[in-house]
Specification:
With about 240 residues, the chain is mainly alpha-helical. It contains 11 helices and 5 strands, in the order αβββαββααααααααα.
Amino acid sequence: MNHDKEIARLTAVTIKTAIGPTIILGSGNYFDYVDPDGSEITIEDVAYGIGYEGRFAGQCYSRILGRRAFYSSGQHSVLMSYAVDRGLEMEALMHEAGEAVCGDVTGPLKSLSPDYKAIEKNCERSILSKFGIEMKHKLEIKTADVRMFVTERRDLTAWNGEDWSVDGGGGVAPYEFRIIPWTPDDSAQAFLDRYAELTQPNFRSALLDRFCAEAGISNCRHSLEGSITQRRSLRVHCP
């Protein structure tokens, strides 16, 4: 028996193909990587996809907890939505939406994988469009993302102060709030609650209030007030 051919055959039978390779989501919908625009995805799929997706390839060490810890792309997105200026909250919350179906690949590895980057960006574009979100402030979002990165490096890695490429030209200042890792389920629920805060009038979340207090985020209510104007400018579609 040709073992390589048999392995390839066994691998192939686990892949459902419509137009292109697909995966099944928690909602029961299939997501097609070649035809993401023809795929259905719910906000719960996004929330749990990134809520259970670990940052830094799972290699996080919480300096606050004093141990290794799980830290999700979902928590990253929720915290960043509080860090940005008024009017940018939804773009910040959803900026990692592609990772719900593509996973989180570390920056160094992603730089070696241009084909992956193209697929991820296309999936991200399609998912954002399904929820009526357009990235109109890419520079501001990327700047906030880099500040989140150095904040995460401070609180969630075994970094010893050596220079990274982000430290060139004077470096980037981390945010003042601290990052205490959430569980995957809490990350997913916090994402859903934050999405509801930005799309539903008068929605309040006790979970987010607690997380904001623990992190030392003082502008929680300020961000909620700013979301009123944002809701009016967003064409929100909830599959």
